[in-house]
Amino acid sequence: MLQTEPLKFDYSGALNPEWGVTGEQVEGLSGRLESIRDSIFDVDLPLYQGGAAIPPELQPLDTAFVDLPERLLDAYEVARPTSEVSAILRTAKRLQSSVDRIVVLGIGGSYLGARALVDTCCDPYFNELPAGHRGGRPKIYFAGNNVDNDSTQGLLHLLRSTNDPGNPHSRWGMIVISKSGGTLETAVALRQFINAWRESFGDERLGEFLVPVTGRSGKLSDLADSIGCPERFPVPDGVGGRFSVFSAVGLLPAAVMGIDIVKLLNSAAWMNDHFRRISFSKNLVLQYVAVNHLLESLRGCHTRVMSVWSNSLETTGLWYDQLFAESIGKAGVGALPLTVVNTRDLHSRAQQHQQGRRDKVMNNVVLERTRTDPVAVGKTGWNDDGLDGFAGFNLPQIMDAAIRGTNEAYREGGRPTTTLTLPVAGEAGIGQVMQMLMLATVVECRLVGVNPYGQPGVEDYKKHMQRFLAEKTV
Q1: Chain-wide mean pLDDT for the chain?
Q2: Spatial separation of the C-alpha atoms in residues 251 and 260, rounded to whole Å
Q3: pLDDT on residue 47
Q4: What is the pTM of this model?
Q5: Which residues contact 108 (CB under 8 A, 6 or more apart)?
Q6: Rounded to whole angstroms, how far apart are CA atoms 118 and 192?
Q7: The pLDDT value given to residue 168
């Protein structure tokens, strides 16, 4: 059962017969989208591109992410001690009690979801807080998502400088996430951080402080065997990296940080139920797809701006950038996702959005209320800036005025907007949002005849990079 209010989706800011869409056009997609929704689990359903059916062997349908929240929750209820959720919670508790810092190694879908959960659910300056204020949870760092030399050296330097041989609680641990273990950026980082750990603590207990999340076979699985890692977690079969946030890929780092992963899974499961049962007229997933697709196909809105109105949601936007771009960006189609954070980016991008090319839809993501007490503007004793008249206002009130003012300006300029409202930042809200956006992405890919799974273009860059590196080793 959902432990908070459901999301709200309002697309009235996109309703305009001259520069937006009409209610009749949106409703006109209802039958088609409901049909796609109903058949989304049919692995034999052919995709169509250019009028020709794609052979089944060329359309891997990794739909196992859809009911993953329910399967994990059911196992937790029926066989709690042996369930994967319980195993994740036990490992998280062990790491919390044995390390002061945790490094999450992964790239793309192997880290963006976890980072989005941490940024949405934890204190924004969590790593800077004293241990007592962190509730015994370790500081967290994300690496293995780039091959930038200076940032890698910086984190290695930080970890070495905080190591106190006389204090066992100064140890740090690693969670490494890679389905195959063959992704070069993460594999290189793992080698570097393993060597740094051994330099500081020796070889004997490395396996206790390295927890792999990987496929049931592959390079990382073999390495875990060689090291002797007593705990490891699977990336489920049929779940692609960018759809894996509600597996151990996202849940283990989240649990280490004290995030309520059961509440998170429950909210994702609620969104699944909503998606399956609710008709188009009130279905958040289907309406989101319909409005955005129509604005692209009828109005040329080929850029989809996810305009988040909270710093805590920025990484959620970056997670969605990858989810949507890798899923739909194939066969010469697919809108460009772009994340902006307001009010910050109103002072950098808003001019172009307001008066530049008419090729964008602004999908606002807002919080109905804050997690913390509102901060008042207040008085300083000086009024040189003329703000004493605003002293009684607080930041949420100013944010609300900025949201309303920006949307009104866009409407006056003939720029379509939609608004997705979360009740508050936290497990229940972000669980709904992430499941909604994953479902919406698959539905829209089906709508335009693109296979939502796989990333052949990304594989091309990997192939060429490996070739250039191989040439240097000859």
Answers
A1: 92
A2: 9
A3: 44
A4: 0.94
A5: 145, 241, 242, 322, 326
A6: 24
A7: 65
Q: Are 434 and 316 in contact (CB under 8 A)?
A: yes
Strand, coil or helix: what is 99? coil
Residue 56: what pLDDT? 42
Pairing, β 233-234 against β 210-214: parallel
- At 175 the three-state DSSP class reads strand
Strands (E), 342-389: 360-367
377: its two tokens: 């503007």
* CB burial readout 88-118, b (16+ within 10 A) else e: bbebbeebbebbbbbbbbbbbbbbbbbbbbb
Coil, strand or helix: which one is 48?
Answer: strand
Spatial contact of 241 and 110, defined as CB atoms under 8 Å apart: yes
Instruction: Enumerate the active-site residues.
Output: 326, 347, 462
Instruction: Indicate the DSSP class of residue 83.
Output: S
Q: Measured between alpha carbons, how far is 379 from 386 in angstroms, rounded to an integer?
A: 10
Tokens of 233: 């977690």
> DSSP letter at 110?
G
Spatial CA neighbour of 98 closest among 90, 109, 106:
90
pLDDT in tens, 343-362: 999 999 999 999 999 999 99
In contact, 101 and 137? CB cutoff 8 Å:
no
DSSP string, 406-431: HHHHHHHTT--EEEEEESSSSHHHHH
Which range among 66-75, 135-144, 452-461 shows the weakest confidence by mean pLDDT?
452-461
Q: How confident is the model at residue 48 (pLDDT cuts 50, 70, 90)?
A: very low
